[in-house]
Amino acid sequence: MAEAKTKPTGASVQKFLAGVSDPSRREDCQALLRLMRRVTGYQPRMWGPSMVGFGSYRYKYASGREGDWFLTGFSPRKTDLTLYITPGLLRYRGLLQRLGKHKTGKSCLYLKRLADVDLGVLTELVATAHRDIQEMSRPRT
Q1: What is the mean pLDDT of residues 129-135?
Q2: What distance in Å separates the CA atoms of residue 125 and residue 141, rounded to the nearest whole number?
Q3: Mind listing the domains of the chain with CATH numbers?
Q4: Burial letters for 81-104: b for 16+ Cβ neighbours within 10 Å, e otherwise?
Q5: pTM listed for this prediction
Q6: CA-CA distances (angstroms) from residue 21 to 2, 34, 67, 78, 101?
Q7: Nearest to residue 87, comparing CAs of 40, 36, 136?
Q8: How far, in Å, CA of 37 to CA of 105, rounded?
Q9: Beta-carbon neighbour count of residue 53 at 10 Å?
Q10: HSE of 40 in the Cβ direction (CA atoms, 13 Å)?
């Protein structure tokens, strides 16, 4: 079974974010860092070379493949800020309708800038998704 490529590293989150070239994107990253730290209660950690993750959980697919992943996180990609909403975005349609300007993938929320969205709704989305993934990943007995 192939091992996951993206793993937690010992790299500095602050050093990584300081290297974001666009000043506005860098400020948005610092705001996301504060928001996610406050909502999750976890310290940020680099996952691979470009993802900032908070907490972790163990997943196992029906195929038998398993690994570790962060509960929530983000990455300052070239064209968007990418937020990882691990439980998937379909369950949060109501929040997304109130969020503001964004695009979505299955579990990725793409924002051009934080000024385009309602930060209260974003906080609610991250908090709800964080609570949901913790519940979903809790071992059943």
Answers
A1: 92
A2: 28
A3: 13-136 (3.90.1150.200)
A4: bbbbbbbbbeebeebbeebeebeb
A5: 0.90
A6: 34, 19, 32, 10, 23
A7: 136
A8: 23
A9: 26
A10: 25
The per-residue pLDDT for 141 is 43
Phi, psi of 16 (to 5 degrees): -60, -50
Q: Model confidence over 89-111: pLDDT tens digits?
A: 999 999 999 999 999 999 999 99
pLDDT at 3 over 60: no
- Using CA atoms, how far residue 73 sits from 27, 76, 85, 120, in Å, is 16, 11, 8, 17
In angstroms, rounded to a whole number, what is the distance separating the alpha carbons of residues 37 and 26? 16
The rounded distance, in Å, linking the Cα atoms of 91 and 94 is 8
Say if strands 108-111 and 103-104 run parallel, antiparallel, or are unpaired: antiparallel
* Residue position matching structure tokens 């909403």: 85
> CA-CA distance, 118 to 57, in Å (whole number)?
28
Give the integer Cα–Cα distance in Å for 25 and 28. Answer: 5
d(C-alpha 104, C-alpha 108), whole Å:
6
